[in-house]
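Still learning. Any example?
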Amino acid sequence: MKIHETNPMRTLSFIAFALALFTTTAHASTPETTKITQDELVRRTQELFDAVAIGNQTPWKACFAEDTIYTDETGKIMDKPALVANISPLPKGYSGTIKS
Protein backbone atom coordinates (compact mmCIF):
# COMPACT_ATOMS: atom_id res chain seq x y z
CA MET A 1 0.00 0.00 0.00
CA LYS A 2 1.44 3.38 -1.02
CA ILE A 3 0.91 6.27 1.42
CA HIS A 4 0.52 9.71 -0.15
CA GLU A 5 2.16 12.53 1.79
CA THR A 6 0.97 16.08 1.22
CA ASN A 7 3.33 19.01 1.12
CA PRO A 8 1.80 21.93 3.09
CA MET A 9 3.54 24.55 0.90
CA ARG A 10 2.24 22.87 -2.25
CA THR A 11 -1.28 22.85 -0.80
CA LEU A 12 -1.07 26.55 0.14
CA SER A 13 0.31 27.40 -3.30
CA PHE A 14 -2.60 25.57 -4.93
CA ILE A 15 -5.14 27.37 -2.72
CA ALA A 16 -3.55 30.76 -3.50
CA PHE A 17 -3.58 29.97 -7.22
CA ALA A 18 -7.22 28.85 -7.10
CA LEU A 19 -8.26 32.01 -5.25
CA ALA A 20 -6.38 34.20 -7.73
CA LEU A 21 -7.97 32.38 -10.64
CA PHE A 22 -11.44 32.67 -9.10
CA THR A 23 -10.98 36.38 -8.40
CA THR A 24 -9.75 37.05 -11.92
CA THR A 25 -12.55 35.01 -13.45
CA ALA A 26 -15.19 36.68 -11.29
CA HIS A 27 -13.88 40.12 -12.22
CA ALA A 28 -13.71 39.25 -15.91
CA SER A 29 -17.32 38.09 -15.93
CA THR A 30 -18.78 41.31 -14.52
CA PRO A 31 -20.80 43.43 -16.94
CA GLU A 32 -18.76 45.89 -18.96
CA THR A 33 -18.98 49.44 -17.70
CA THR A 34 -20.04 52.24 -19.98
CA LYS A 35 -17.11 53.61 -21.95
CA ILE A 36 -16.74 57.35 -22.42
CA THR A 37 -14.96 59.38 -25.05
CA GLN A 38 -11.91 61.52 -24.46
CA ASP A 39 -14.09 64.62 -24.91
CA GLU A 40 -16.44 63.40 -22.17
CA LEU A 41 -13.49 62.69 -19.86
CA VAL A 42 -12.14 66.22 -20.43
CA ARG A 43 -15.62 67.69 -19.85
CA ARG A 44 -16.06 65.81 -16.57
CA THR A 45 -12.56 66.75 -15.42
CA GLN A 46 -13.21 70.42 -16.19
CA GLU A 47 -16.49 70.20 -14.26
CA LEU A 48 -14.56 68.97 -11.20
CA PHE A 49 -11.94 71.72 -11.62
CA ASP A 50 -14.63 74.41 -11.94
CA ALA A 51 -16.37 73.14 -8.81
CA VAL A 52 -13.29 73.58 -6.61
CA ALA A 53 -13.08 77.41 -6.62
CA ILE A 54 -16.75 77.87 -5.78
CA GLY A 55 -16.93 74.92 -3.37
CA ASN A 56 -19.53 72.96 -5.35
CA GLN A 57 -19.46 69.43 -3.94
CA THR A 58 -22.16 68.02 -6.26
CA PRO A 59 -19.91 66.90 -9.15
CA TRP A 60 -17.45 65.40 -6.67
CA LYS A 61 -20.22 63.38 -5.03
CA ALA A 62 -21.40 62.15 -8.44
CA CYS A 63 -17.98 61.36 -9.86
CA PHE A 64 -16.39 59.23 -7.15
CA ALA A 65 -17.43 55.73 -6.08
CA GLU A 66 -18.67 55.20 -2.53
CA ASP A 67 -15.56 53.15 -1.69
CA THR A 68 -13.10 55.73 -3.04
CA ILE A 69 -9.78 56.09 -1.25
CA TYR A 70 -8.00 59.34 -2.18
CA THR A 71 -4.49 60.44 -1.28
CA ASP A 72 -3.69 64.13 -1.66
CA GLU A 73 -0.35 65.71 -2.51
CA THR A 74 0.64 65.82 1.18
CA GLY A 75 -0.02 62.10 1.70
CA LYS A 76 -3.31 62.60 3.56
CA ILE A 77 -5.59 59.59 2.94
CA MET A 78 -9.33 60.24 2.67
CA ASP A 79 -12.47 58.27 1.98
CA LYS A 80 -15.21 59.76 -0.19
CA PRO A 81 -16.99 61.70 2.60
CA ALA A 82 -13.69 63.29 3.71
CA LEU A 83 -12.71 64.09 0.12
CA VAL A 84 -16.05 65.76 -0.61
CA ALA A 85 -15.94 67.66 2.69
CA ASN A 86 -12.59 69.14 1.60
CA ILE A 87 -14.26 70.85 -1.37
CA SER A 88 -14.99 74.33 -0.07
CA PRO A 89 -15.00 77.78 -1.70
CA LEU A 90 -11.78 79.73 -2.00
CA PRO A 91 -11.34 82.33 0.75
CA LYS A 92 -13.00 85.71 0.23
CA GLY A 93 -10.96 87.83 -2.17
CA TYR A 94 -9.40 84.83 -3.94
CA SER A 95 -10.37 83.56 -7.37
CA GLY A 96 -8.94 81.16 -9.86
CA THR A 97 -9.49 78.71 -12.66
CA ILE A 98 -7.95 75.44 -13.71
CA LYS A 99 -8.13 74.42 -17.35
CA SER A 100 -7.70 70.82 -18.39
The two ends are 74 Å apart (CA to CA). The first strand starts at residue 69 and ends at 71. Residues 1-29 have pLDDT under 50 and may be disordered.
